[in-house]
Input
Amino acid sequence: MHPAPSVIVFTVLSGLGFGFLAYLGAGLVVPPAGWAAFLVWGLGYGFAVVGLLASVFHLGNPKNAIRAFSQWRTSWLSREGIFSVLTLLILAPVALFEIFGGFPLATLGWPGALLALVTVFCTSMIYAQLKTVPRWNQWLTPVMFMTFALTGGAILSGFNVLSILLCVVLTAVLVAIFNVGDKRLADSGSTMETATGLGKIGKVRLYEGPHTGTNYLMDEMIYVVGRRHAQKLRVIAVAFAAILPALVMLIAPEGSLFGIALALIFHLTGAAAARWLFFAEAEHVVGLYYGAR
Amino acid sequence: MTELPQKTDRKLGLVIDLDICVGCHACVTACKGWNTENYGAPLADMNAYGEDPSGTFLNRIHSYEVQPSGGGCAQTVHFPKSCLHCEDAPCVTVCPTGASYKRAEDGIVLVNEDACMGCGLCAWACPYGAREMDRAAGVMKKCTLCVDRIYNENLPEVDRVPACVRTCPAGARHFGDFADPDSNVSRMVAERGGMDLMPEQGTKPVNKYLPPRPKDRPAAAPLTPIADVKATGVAGFLDRLLEKL
Amino acid sequence: MTYRQPILDTSPKVSDEIRKTTCYMCACRCGINVHMKNGRVAYIEGNRDHPINKGVLCAKGSSGIMQVTAPSRLRHPMKRVGPRGSGEFQEISWDEALELAVSWLKPLRETNPEKMAFFTGRDQSQSLTGFWAQAYGTQNYAAHGGFCSVNMAAGGIYTIGGAFWEFGTPDWDRTKLFVLFGVAEDHDSNPIKMGIGKLKTRGGRVIGVNPIRSGYNAVADDWYGVTPGADGLLILALVHELFKAGKIDLEYLARFTNAPCLVKADAGPENGLLLRDADDKLLVIDKRSGKPVPFDTPGVRPDLGATHQGCRTVFQVMAEKYLDEKYAPEAVAERVGISAERIKGFAAELAHVAFDEAIELDQPWTDFRGDKHDKMIGRPVSFHAMRGISAHSNGFQTARALHMLQVLLGAVECPGGWRMKPPYPKPVEGHPKPHCGVTPGKPLNGPHLGYPLGPEHLALKEDGSPARIDKAFSWENPLSAHGMMHMVISNAHAGDPYKIDTLFLYMANMAWNSSMNTRAVIEMLTDKGEDGEYVIPRIIYSDAYSSEMVAYADLILPDTTYLERHDCISLLDRPIGEADAAADAIRWPVVEPDRNVRGFQSVLIDLGARLGLPGFVNEDGGAKYKDYADYIVSHERRPGVGPLMGFRGNGEGVGRGAPNPDQIKRYIENGAFFLAHMPEDGSYFKPWNKSYQDWAVKIGLFDAPSPYLFSLYSEPMRRFQLAAEGHGDRQPPDHLRDRLKQAMEPLPCWYTPFGDEDAEDYPIHALTQRPMAMYHSWGSQNAWLRQIHGQNPLYLPTGIWEKHGFAEGDWARVSSPHGEIVVPVAHMAGLNPNTVWTWNAIGKRKGAWALEENAPEATKGFLLNHLIHELLPAKGDGLRWSNSDPVTGQAAWFDLRVKIEKAPARHHTEPNLPPIKSPVPEAPKHRRQGEKA
Output
């Protein structure tokens, strides 16, 4: 799949934002009232909203985006939209209470926190539901999204120990998803032979594509990333998203803003790399028709 | 509305005969010609005369070579592909805006462009590459089964078929109702072993493909000479030959 | 919640109006419905009533809208202002353009008309252009058949009085086995696709004989991946097998062919000619009496096995020739590239279907001898072939061999076989002979092109040298019935046989894909003599589009597109038609041009009037015709017979009748075509069918019944052989004698293609095919079609692919004895192991066709033309032999031999010629056809 910057920014930042909002909503982090609370909540809202806005850049016809709230019965994307807005709305009084009142509003905070995680889950399900992309179509995909959200949230919350623990989990999840993912297309059973129905005759290969130029499908769904390039990026992703932040959190004193910032920068860099790979390595079965798998 | 209808009254779709398709691309441009002037936004051609032309087409022809598992020479198969109007159309259910829908009366899968926000998720959900985002209009385009032809009272009845079917020179494309077991398409599918593409995807495509008939049979037994020319000489051979007259 | 869906208007208005005309996206000429919205073309579909396409339409036809609106359309008449090839032009008015042309053409006509050479490319108005050239008085006129498929035309006409092309058709409703030789995706394209579909749906079978398994060969039930140039040998092996097994339609041969005619055995000037009576009628031995009688004697039973005064029958000569073991499948298998077992199986299948699955129609008919037949016997095997087998230096004989095979099976003009479309059948004797009698200021002494019956019909000067600039109808290629356009520029440049002054070309991309040796041709067009003048001093060119040739002309006469013009697809020319009906058609301007352009035919008529050519001016010297439309309606070639057959006289006349001023209007009302059905008892066995012959006379196809025998044995060819043997007044130059003796063999034969001689260092055959979605070069300007074929790889068979270790994305250096190219490669498994191929005419020159200079056509596309020379490599005999068929001069494109090596990938194919300045404005970036304003 084409690793579009808008979608990478969207999933990374909104995941981080909602992950952090979950900690805030649950009252695990209670910043001092006033500016501090404003900044902390602002950070959570900022990441979440910037992420959501980035997703709009992925739309061909954003004027109809409002309709995306209508199809919650069947569409994970619709659910994601609804839950994200719901989360932001429900947590707003919590944030206001903390900013102006200095105390958490647990009655709304806990449901808000839960909704924030549900939102991240919905985001992950947009991808995990797609049978057409076997690499995504597995339970590790929501696990990976959730782990990222919780890890990022923990780092932003300045929970050193939790961050380190989650970084270890994240390392394991990433290693697992890379390795399991590599086998998913083969395991899906979809081949050029099933795609064309010609398998009864024999082995199928593309002799001439339907067009000599490109098209939307090829640009969007057939992205080929070199194996060695991918291996390098996988190492970078794990190192930056999990190992380096863990090391920072190990060394930095609890609550060190510098430590949080450094760990966050590492983490986001790694998350971006991981997310780039998440898309770039994902093989859409339509590629079988183009002989590109 | 992206819930799929419980059932559709009819199941309209295409049968594509891979034994006959010569890969001429006639259906590709007839489709483009009709649809750029009709349903929804026109179909854009970006960089139309440039380095990297890229246009929206709702139907495309791939060409494959199949190496028979039992040996023998490779076979070339031309393979037209457009929306299969699946019964369990994943492109419909993923749509967040309700733009994608499957018609209850005939099962045609359509995009209501007035509601489409161009997120592309439906194209991601389709295993067949049947949906293409129009890069000028920013909305998703797909085969409409020429819904604006097949019921069109401004067209003579004989022309109320999809443009690709009407134009196909080899007669490799057939349109009909798969819900009716006696329809032309149902009978063809029954007789020729019509098949689904990527059945493992669970989409239950309505369109069916007729497989190529077996090719490259073993050579027929050679003819028997009426006489041995070496023995009879040409004149003697001709006497034997012309006796028949 | 109930299921909701939008309310849809399923009956939107389709268009304001449908205008019916004739397609011209290729030579197939289908009927089209052009849907108009607000005065613009909105949609094009096939016309269901039309005899050719019956409603279907190919990829090109349905993309016509992109051709009519292409940014590459020329806009104004232009005069060259920069050097040739620079693309620097000045727009001028039509008056200035026409006066300039007249100022060049008029003095030439009055002094030396042969200095004007007029050649047309993909034109379909040869009956007018030939008429014009004849009136002008130059012998130097032809269309492009010489580099296309003249072997297929001439091979057919000389053998059976009809040819494949679009002039005949398998009996698709009845045939059971269709055999296709070689690439044939262009002419008659939609009817063949329809036919194959129909046949296969009925359970019939298709056999493909082609080195490449694509297109029609992809749907063939059996594929024979023959080695290029060996088709003729394969056919003769099939003939050998059929002869040996006696699987030959003897009755058919005896009645309808010259197989029972007697071959003169006496040495001397008539040796090998056929025995005739005092009235020059062919004689056969009547089995009833044992006596020689004229072949058309009522009740005659011609004896295939007779001998008479030492003369044997043609049939006996054939038996002796083809029973020879050198044609045995085992003997030819290696050369043909197909195992003996499969060749034998092929022959057996032909015999089985022709004889064991024969069909009978309960349709009585009467033959030309007056003999009545109570039914029609059909051999349901049909054949087709085009350029694949004809574009070789042995293509003429191969085409003849294929016709012989059909005839031996009795499968021509019978139910289930292959049938001709009016105006065919027409014996070779019924065609004109070539003429070259030039008188300054006067018309030529007859039509330029025709079918020589012997050396007396060659176009030679007094000294025996070629009279024509292209050397057509000379000893080098006596039967060059379509001329040899591919030789014109190189001959004119070399001054061999002479220099010319003005080259007048229409719709022929000679500076690119229509020339062999493209780069050298470009140099010839721009070469200057010592006097500083161009060696070819003046070039007038007419085309509708900014083709590569435009930059090399001095005066551009911009043509219209096909929807903006009048045309006629005439029985005098290359009509459409059906096997049981004569048909013709028109084009008419369904939209008016939005540019300062004029239909070329109207311009030619205007020029004719300005030059005062007979036939184009009235007695008072005024223009005889207002424009082409007026000519179509008013011109009479013979009294009562004009370009169009329908609605003549008072509107009821078919074929014959006075001009009818309402004729075009009536055609438009009728869907732009006219169809005249022949009587039911006349629609098979037409060359010998009395009912057909009478009908053909009635509608003016000819003036008296002209039945004839199929020429398995070709007397005209034997006459050329006799000349080569030293008989007769007109004698070939000595260096051509041996070649003529071999090439003019009167019974179909096979010899090694010239390109294969001394080609050990170039072990691979290289071919091109035309994609079904493109036609010649002009598809690339079509925004839809160029997305399908915007570049062309060289396809390599598995063996070569693996031997060189090629991988996807690789490039190769391909060299021939003449040149080299560097191109992208791709793998194809369904390919003869010694053959590589690519799509034809995808490669474009930078700056042409209104494409951006970095268009893939110009950077990744390529032509094989650079590897092909119009002459063969020097043999050390001091002579340069032309790379064409020695019988017809057909360009031997497919004789090409190459070698291949891996080359580093690059950004441009080689050769990479510099860009030419586009004579049309830059194209828009994006397009949205049908954009709602």
User: Anything to note?
Assistant: Chain A has two domains: 1-129, 158-293. Residues 158-293 of chain A form one domain.
